[in-house]
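Weekly structure sync, notes
Attendees: PL (lead), two postdocs, one rotation student
Agenda item 3: pending single-chain targets
PL asked that the sequence for the first pending target be pasted directly into the notes so everyone works from the same version. It is reproduced below exactly as submitted, 504 residues in total.
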Amino acid sequence: MKAKDWNSVILIITTLALTFQEKIIREVYAMIYKPKTGSMWDPSVIWHDGRYYAFMMYNRDGNNGLDAGHCFLASSEDGAHWKDEGIVNEERERERGCKFFKCFVGKCSDRFIMDHGVARPEGQDVLRFYESRNLKNWEYLFSSEPDPRWYTRGRWDHMYILSKEEGNPSAGYYGYPVANANPEMPRGVGMMQSPDGLTWEVLPPAKVEWGDISPLDFEWGGCERIGGKYYLIGGTGGYVSNGYAMYVFIADDPKGPFRPDPEAYRLCGSSTNNVSWLAVWCRGKNEILISNYTSIEHGNLSPWMLPMRKPVVDANGHLRLTWWSANELLKEKPISLAKTSVNLNTSKADSDYQITWLDTTFDLQKGAILEGTVNASTVNSGCTAGFVFDEGNGGSMAIQLDIGAPDQRETHIGKLRKGTDGTFEFVSEDVTGKYCATVTGIENCKEHTFRLLVRLSVFELYIDDLLMQTYIYKPSGGKVGFLSRNAEVVFSDLKAWSMSLPAE
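Predicted structure, written out during the meeting:
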């Protein structure tokens, strides 16, 4: 065969290989998503022209998303199923050890503005700005540093962009960068403003009226207006809860003063372990959403995106996270259940548990969604109903929902094991109770609906479409069951589906 013929064969093989590789890279994933290769961190989502776009920190060479040098893009037509698009930006000074940290993308008139933090050898104290018309090709604008009149160089990081007037781009924009105020100033909220998104002026920090809440510097997931109020969400660890968690601040004006919402302060997160990370606002199609992401085991720095949530403000003005209707698209094929109802009765037992496992074992690589109703009745305190996840060797992870009045109950997640004497021992790892915006339990003698999502080592529970918690366990298989403690509990109308995604 002549050399030029060999070259033609090699070209054809190379083309086929690249086509096959692109097919693999662009496979669709859902609940939960991460890039096919490499590791991501801190995704931010925006909707435009019929598609959702998720921008995230990206380490293409390792398992630690915090070692990101690039910005990775994933897209979704429905907000529930995601596919890789690839790298769309990179840190300008990677060669000297600078890292691409969290970015936000905002729509400013007819263009998009991306800002992202930079972890430099000198510190995390620079914001870079880019513009784009198509969300894929980005042109560098400038870099910003904290104004020493008001801020230290401790941190100058990702900035959420909010229009000053909804639907009026000419009014300009506010930005909420992650920042540290000077020591002589009270802890507040970093702020900038811009007439067009292309040039930005640093403003003094917005005031926070902390009340009885201890002041702290947060990293911000953005500020959005709902019903004439401004809701600022921020995350940190080792604060009200030891694990990383999100918190809610409310203001009457976009420039503050912001006030913690003490009755529903913790929006989501774990009380002891770092499971879920920074939640951020997302401008969806004619609606506002919140996106979040999670590690699939303690200490894992190659996390996955979670299903997006629908934020709502209840009658008392508290921000809550709810099931987003588009997540119904995560359901693929019905899973046949031998039991569509389970009756448990430990109402006459003293501190005893009853557990019933589903006959069906879920494929955790594929993922499953279990739905139904729960109705519990009791005449005592310290009574619970909930769910169990098999961890093998007689142990399980359990969700225990207290039964009672809202201000008197908690939900605990932890290890449940049956001892040699036949009694159960429960060790709580996470508690949701007073001052939390998520579900604290269920009412006595009232029927509640539930949605339970489980995939890999992650589960997520909704009660009456309100988020209860996202948490992790160490599965030995796909067994899921129900529990009661000192209560009569009926789980009914049970239905299950596999998730619409390929196995990992």
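Discussion points:
- The mean pLDDT is 92.
- The helical segments are 3-25.
Action: rotation student to compare against the earlier draft before next sync.
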